């Protein structure tokens, strides 16, 4: 299988739908290939392991089962680690674990050692790469998500086409121990893919900025804000969603039989007397068909009239796969197995391209990181039971027909459960998906298709209430800003008036000072500057004025004497 998921980024960020996303897609392509092709490619070494350790088919089948169980069962652990440390560091550590497990298994002395090294350690490493890579892919793709889903899922068949013949070649040249050692070195490429997972930085939300502005400016209006709750590392509220419960049950049933044919088809061909190389070619044929089936199905799922009904397309894919198993159980020669692999590759590719697309449509992007971890955990139980149970059935009956019949029945049953329950218990609301998907959100139509009526109404009420509160808050902030601007203008006008008054007073005072200084200067000038000529004239005038008086006095005195 394979697929992509969307994780809600911190604060939300619009998916670029391209750019560096294509590099992220290439890394996801490689990691998806390793994650899902390894459990099948390892089956090439089963014959040698049976001879080496003297065990049965059911014992060797546990290797693939443990690999898949770790890939599925550690889903919640991956969700927690990604939410805590981020995608890139988790993937780097996962790449080292995946390589270390295969290297250690090359030194195994018992089948138990291979269970622990290849199954547990390598399985854990692949799990730590798989889920974070899909989360990163969906952060980069939104509108083109179905296409990205199909392209990323195509990594599984491409790797299967390469790893199966490579494993057969390594077994002939170096034995199973040398083959495991070389495959361990090959898994170090997961670290290189992890380096491509450059995180997107989310811009701050506008409402948060407005609230921060209100707090910083010290407004008199008190805006009541509920304290932001820390996002849980694992959200169990998804189990309240009926659509999620139906999907989880159906997917768990499906996994019981989905991986059985790829694990046993090579041994089936060898049992019919075909050469090892010729038998391994069947996985190559299956993978080659699967390469084209996944992107094609992704394109079809992205069509406007198909995307809202993707749940039923997924159900059809499972029915197709199950019927292929039922018909393939009657194969008696190599050409029949080739035809089986062709049709199985088509149906298997459809299931792989749609599995996580459907889960995304059911739970939405916000809860998907937790939902995918919990779904994988539930499926891990089925993975642990499926291939080993089929191997035990094979040991008891010595007939591959019953193995393929059981697998087909399980997958068909899963399809019936998903389609029937979705039709009966989930309100059908076909609506065309939005032309533009932003911030990693799935189209609202697809979410509504799989949401209960009550949940839809509550969600709509909450959205309307939130929008109303934000609108009121924006209006309050706007009024407060206008009030502040008015106050600033009044203060500015008052300051201008005071400055003008001070200027006038200063000018008047300067004029008065200037007049006083001029008066003082004139007085000083009058006192200090008196010319001698003026003084002489004044003395002569005084003398002239005094002479007539003296003459008159003399005349009067003479007249008096005469008398």
TrEMBL record:
Q: Its principal location?
A: membrane
> Any idea which GO molecular function terms this record carries?
lactate:proton symporter activity
Give the record's GO CC terms: basolateral plasma membrane
Location within or outside the cell? Basolateral cell membrane
Q: Which SUPFAM superfamilies match?
A: MFS general substrate transporter
Ranges of Polar residues composition bias in the record = 554-563
Q: Which Gene3D superfamilies match?
A: MFS general substrate transporter like domains
Taxonomically, the superkingdom here is Eukaryota
Regions of compositional bias (Basic and acidic residues) in chain numbering? 465-531, 540-549
**Which of UniProt's keywords are assigned here?**
Cell membrane, Membrane, Symport, Transmembrane, Transmembrane helix, Transport
InterPro entries recorded: MCT, MFS, MFS_dom, MFS_trans_sf, Proton-linked_MCT
Q: Where is the composition biased (Acidic residues)?
A: 455-464
Presence of keyword Transport: yes
Segments passing through the bilayer: 20-39, 60-82, 102-126, 147-166, 178-197, 244-269, 281-303, 310-328, 334-356, 368-388, 400-425
Coiled coil regions in record: none
Region of interest called Disordered, as start-end residue ranges on this chain? 452-563
Q: How does it sit in the membrane?
A: Multi-pass membrane protein
Boundaries of every Major facilitator superfamily (MFS) profile domain copy? 21-432
Family membership = Belongs to the major facilitator superfamily. Monocarboxylate porter (TC 2.A.1.13) family.
Q: What is this protein called?
A: Solute carrier family 16 member 3b
Which lineage do the record's taxonomy fields give for this organism? Eukaryota, Metazoa, Chordata, Craniata, Vertebrata
Gene name, please?
SLC16A3
